[in-house]
Amino acid sequence: MKKLIPLFLVIALIVSCNKNEDPIVISADELHKAIDKVTEVMIHDIFSPPVASRIYAYPNIAAYEIIALHQTGYKSLVGQVTDLTPIPKPDKPVNYQLAALIAHLDLSKHLIFSEDKIEVYRDSLYGHWEQKNKSDFLNSKEYGLRVSNHIAAWLDKDNYKQTRTMPKFTINTDDASRWQPTPPSYMDGIEPHWSKIRPFVIDSANQFVPAPPPAFSMEEGSDFYNEVMEVYHINKEITAKGDTSEEVAIAQFWDCNPYVSVTRGHLMFATKKITPGAHWLGITKIACQKTASDFDKTVMAYTKTSMAIADGFISCWDEKYRSNLIRPETVINQYIDDSWQPLLQTPPFPEYTSGHSVVSGAAATALTSIFGDEFDFDDDTEVPFGLPIRSFTSFYQAANEAAMSRMYGGIHYRAAVEVGIKQGKDLGNFIVNTLEMKKNESLATAE
Q1: Is the bond leading into 39 cis (omega within 30 degrees of zero)?
Q2: What is the pLDDT confidence band of residue 236, given thresholds at 50, 70 and 90?
Q3: Is it the case that residue 442 has pLDDT exceeding 60?
C-alpha cells in the first residue's frame, strides 16, 4: 500500500526546488550607484585629481572587458590599451553583467583606502543576489573576482607604486617664474612624477605637449604681464558684484577642489569636494540616464570617458612640471597687491596648463563621440555640495565653461585655459579615433 505524502510536504518540496532560481537582472542604475559609492569614499579619503582618475579607470575597464567578452556588439580593448592582456574566460555559465559589476566593486575596493566602506555596500548586494539565485551569484562572483585579479596584476605595473617613493618636488626660489607653494596651507607640489604613470591610450605623456606659456616678464605691456593684469581685474570686477555675479557662480560650480583648507583661529580643517574627473563622470551618468542607456552601453560610456580623463591628467601633469609656472596669486601678491586673494583657493601644483581645461576637453570629446554634439543636459552634479543646477546645450559648452571658470576663480591665466582646452580636445580626438569599442564603429574627429 502506497503512503500518501502530506500536502504541506509537497508544497515545501516545490518551494525548495524553486528557491534561489529567480534571474538576477543587473540594471545600469546599479552601476551608477556603485560609482557614486566609490566617489563618496574618495571624497572621504581625499584623493588628488590625478590619483582619483586612475581609481575610476581600472574598475571600468574590468567591467567593460567582461561585457565585451559576452556582448558581440562590443570589442575588447586588448591591443588598443597599453599592455592589457585578454581576461580569463569563464569555465561555467555566468551572468556577465553581474560578474562585471562584481569585478568593478572588487577592483574599486582594491584602489581606495577605506575598504570597509566599499565592503559594507558590497556585502549588502551580495546578500541580495545570493538570496535571489545562489548558483548564478556564486558562479558570477568567482568569475568577476578572477577578472578583477587579472586587471589588478596589470595595473600593478603602471609605475604608480614606484612614484610613491620618488623625491618631493624641489622648489626653485632663484627663478621668479617658477611655482611656489600658496596659502593657506603652503602644500608641496602634488604628484610631480605623474607623467611617469603608464598611459591608457595615448602613446606617451608628452604626445600632446602644448605650446609653451608666455615668457615670464613683469614688464608692462609684455604678454605675461597682460595676462596677470587680466586675472587681477576680472577678479576685482566679479567680486564687486557679489553673489549676483554669473562668473562667481561659474567659478564655484566648477571648483572641484578635493581639499580646501579652512582656517578658523588656530584651527585648520578641510572642506571636501569631488575632483574634476568625478564631475565629468557625473555628467556621464546624466547622459546615460537621459538616453535610458542599458547596462552595457553605460559601462562603455564610463570606460571611454574615464580613460580620456586619466590620460588627460597624465598629459597635463607632464606639462605642469615641465613649464613649472608661477600661479597668479603669488605674482599678484609679490608685484601688484599684497592683499589680493583669488576667488577660489589655489591648488597645490604649477599653473600651466589648466587641469580642468585639459580634462574637460578630453571628457567632452569622449562623451560627444557617444551621445552626439547637440546634447542638452541639466548638470546636478554639484547639488550635494549646495550648488544649483546648471544647464548646457552640449558637452563642449560645459567644457568651455569649466575652462573659463579657472580664470574667474583667479587661479589660472588665459593661456593655460585656452591652450589647455585645445590640449584636451586634441587628446580626446586621438582617443576617439584610436579606440574601436563598438564593432564596425566609424571613426570621426569631434569638433
Answers
A1: no
A2: very high
A3: no
